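Question thread 4412

I'm putting together a teaching handout and wanted feedback from people who do this every day. The idea is simple: show students a protein as raw sequence, then show them the structure tokens that encode its fold, then repeat with a second protein so they can compare. Below is the first pair exactly as I plan to print it.
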Amino acid sequence: MRVVITGNIGTGKSTVCNHLLSKLVGFRLVSADDLVRELYINHEGFRAYLQATFGTLSRREVAARVFADAEARQALVEQSLQCLTSVVDALFQQENVLIEFPLFFENPRWVAQADYVIALHCPPDTQRERVMARDNLSAADVERIVNAQMPMAAKVALADVAIDTGTSMSEMLDAVAARATFIERETLRRRCCAFFGTPEIWPYLQAAYSENHRGYHTLRHLAELFATLAPYQDIKEWAAVEMAIWFHDVIYSTQLERYADNEALSAHALVRMTRAHCSAEWHASFEAARILAVQLILASKDHKVTPYLENYQDALEAAELFLDADRAILGADADRLAEYDAGIAFEWLSTGQLDPSVFRDGRRDALRGLAAHKPLFYSKAFAHLTDQAQANLAQLATAYAQPEMV
């Protein structure tokens, strides 16, 4: 998805963009202001224009001039766009990008290319106070800048959704988090529909990965797997890997009598859902991939590559990458590791069917079992995570050895 965050000066774009980025997996943030700033520093043609027109290369000095002269301001914008058009055109061809773009609606060239637009707004008094304090400007200077920009109300009306940044910080961040959830799900939905060639499979997957008892094996887990494996989508058996990602945890029960069947039932779900909803053309193209995907899902039960797959180099590469990516969370940083572990605990304890002491002992033993798995990661692509993962496993196992852990 191409997500645009727009808004006038002082509406909190940087704060919102950074928080949104922290909540999304596999996205990157590009600031139009940074692109313009780069023009002032490194673009020879643009710098020559500034020197000839304004007699200075200082962005602040140029801004002071143009905000008092509408004609000069429009000429500067046009010159900037002339230098940046190809860069921004390329940006809107990318996937999973957040674009901080203050003048987005002022430049309609790209409006139709955005998948989702978030407009930021706040009370005018709040806006002016922020700008005066941040930029050390007078009230008159701020007024000139504000009057030179498209009204906030117009941008709110044109956007897909608006966020009021004049509320409390906690309210604003909650609103941003809600947008992040929507963006994550919409990104997955689009990918799912494109891959399976039908909109019918996504509702099933979304419902499964959003079950109330799930804390880690959620849609975010899928997003993390796709982001982790993004560099390897050109491998020969990528279609099987993608299929396995979508379905490997679609059935996830933490009831002890059913837990051992999760992978087998998930593999059956892949076959059942694709037979029911995918076209004959899809089957003709992906039947071999589905056969391998079923084996990858089954292998995720104990994260072991079967001897059969070792006979086929392309299938082996796919299996190793898939299993390693599924286990890569073990090498996460401290914050994400804590979230992961809390999510696992929630999945087992939220139903109230398992005594906490039983979970604690079982979790400790499972962590120790993981640490004993040799190799912990099969592929060279993930081998570098081994030391951190072993340290994390030791830390968690030690914590679960304490009676007060749960």
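The second pair follows. I'd like the answer to focus on this one:
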Amino acid sequence: MFKRLRALMVFLVVLLGGIAVVNWWLPSLLKGPKVTRLPPGVKPPTTPGLEEALPVSVRTFKATQIEFTDLLPTLGTVRGQYEVELKFETNGIVKALEFREGDLVKQGQVLANLDDREGRLRLQYAQSKLETAKAQLKLAQKRLEVNERLYRLGVIILPKLEEAQIEAEQAQSQMETAEREVDLAGNELEKTVLRSPIDGVIGTREAEIGEYVATPQSVIGTVMDVTSIYVEMGIIERDIERIRLGQRVKIMVDSLPNASFEGRVDNLAPVIEGKS
């Protein structure tokens, strides 16, 4: 009986000791390893077998609201608002070029001349024909006046007077035709002079003195109106959805590295270029 009582007491002591050990160890197991904050640059101590319990150094940032700009850099070509190709209206040999690339020109300013010897000969020939037609008209009118007096006096018959009237009308028609030929020759001669169609800046010069030019293929040069300019840019397919009319555009050119110009998207080409 005494042995059973002793065994029971030992069992109770062991049970109470086990409960105490569990109450002390279980909270620390649930909480996990304790993390210690280390100063920047200090390495944690190494203990064999305890690598999982070492603290990890992290970097944090404070989130704030800022204005975000989505940039899409691309290359383009600066052009004048208007670009006009300079061409002669007639064929010939270039006799003079009165401009250089980059020159400022005014509307109507003479830029180039063709050899006009043939044109001047045509004009002189037409003018001589006009003088002859005027003389013929005066002679026909004088003859008509004489026949009218003779007809009133009864010296000639009516058909003779009508014949003089027809001759005067023919002379008048011939003189008017000669005048048109003079105007035509003068217009052809004027075509040998190339004038600037607008105020602007000369772009490229594509001809030289002595060169034969033929219309409409031959281009002498270009003149550009630079009072307002535009930039032509190409956009690849994947960036099409990022472009909208009215978007702001910042433009920079190599000749002015420290300056930038602001513009807006004014036009989107409706057709995709297959080559690019």
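Top answer:
Good format. For the second protein you could add a caption like this: The chain has a mean pLDDT of 84. The chain has three helices and ten strands.
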